[in-house]
Amino acid sequence: MTLYMIIAGVITSIAALVGTFLVGRDVTRQLKKYEEEGDTPEDQLARSIDYEKTSLKYNIKRLSWIYVVLGLVVLFVSISIAYFGN
Known about the structure:
The protein has helices at 2-37, 41-84. By secondary structure, it is mainly α.
């Protein structure tokens, strides 16, 4: 049973890492799109303001949920190993 819990923790950690990379990839795509649209100081300011709003609203929320779930799984696995471990 301990082995299954460790495997579940590792799989969840890998899923969290993949989720983080996906969020980073979305940010990179958005920055490339902004670069293609133009590069005037006014455009940069508007993009910066838009990015701050978007990033706080979506990216931070996604990353927070990813790592909350990861933390809960790791906590559950650790307590289970301490309780059921040999």
